[in-house]
Structure to design on (230 residues):
């Protein structure tokens, strides 16, 4: 069955058939599997049908997962992972470790995403999520703590349009040691060239030079986006 979805996702007509099949399977004894949903969501993105991709992602959420909804899905980095494109994507990355901890069961102040840097160069960070923001004005906010954080080539969250408009927001994470520091940035999404966005934790390093070693621990307790009234 998975092969069928992988084949159907290759054309617009096939995607429509796959979408109907997923809807039919939702209430059946063999509901859609996560990899089948991911295949069709990815197919819509390849066809640049971003709204259809996002609608299917929302449709695929369980009741528990719906509680984590918002402009950023799972903004408190709970350790639940669907593997879908509009959820957090974690990839193996040399020089750092990323772990998610639940805000309820964590040691005091440790809930969220913990990034440990291993005293090596870091060219890319390992955390990203596709988001779907309609045109308008927004504020992105981060509550973070740090211990002995040294970032020789910066560490920042960026929001880039998946389209010709490019980067629309970037804010740097400060070095040092601090507890639950609040960071925020206002930004806007234009009406053209920005149908979907990529939210990404990144560094400004172009090459992995050992002169620029990242050290310390960053805990991001919550990363959220709210719409500002115009």
């Amino acid at each position: 069955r998975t092969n069928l979805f992988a084949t159907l996702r290759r054309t617009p007509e096939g995607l429509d058939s796959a979408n109907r099949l997923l809807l039919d399977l939702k209430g059946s004894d063999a509901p859609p599997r996560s990899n089948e949903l991911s295949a069709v969501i990815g197919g819509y993105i390849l066809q640049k049908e971003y709204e259809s991709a996002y609608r299917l992602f929302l449709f695929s959420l369980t009741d528990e997962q719906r509680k984590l909804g918002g402009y950023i899905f799972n903004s408190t980095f709970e350790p639940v992972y669907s593997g879908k494109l509009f959820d957090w994507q974690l990839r193996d990355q040399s020089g750092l470790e990323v772990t998610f901890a639940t805000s309820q069961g964590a040691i005091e102040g440790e809930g969220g995403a913990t990034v440990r840097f291993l005293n090596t160069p870091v060219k890319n960070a390992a955390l990203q999520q596709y988001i779907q923001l309609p045109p308008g004005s927004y504020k992105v906010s981060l509550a973070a703590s740090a211990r002995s954080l040294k970032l020789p080539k910066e560490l920042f969250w960026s929001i880039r349009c998946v389209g010709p408009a490019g980067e629309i927001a970037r804010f740097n994470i400060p070095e040092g040691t601090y507890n639950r520091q609040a960071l925020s940035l206002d930004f806007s999404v234009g009406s053209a060239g920005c149908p979907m966005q990529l939210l990404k934790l990144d560094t400004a390093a172009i090459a992995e030079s050992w002169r620029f070693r990242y050290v310390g621990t960053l805990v991001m307790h919550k990363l959220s986006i709210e719409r500002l009234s115009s």
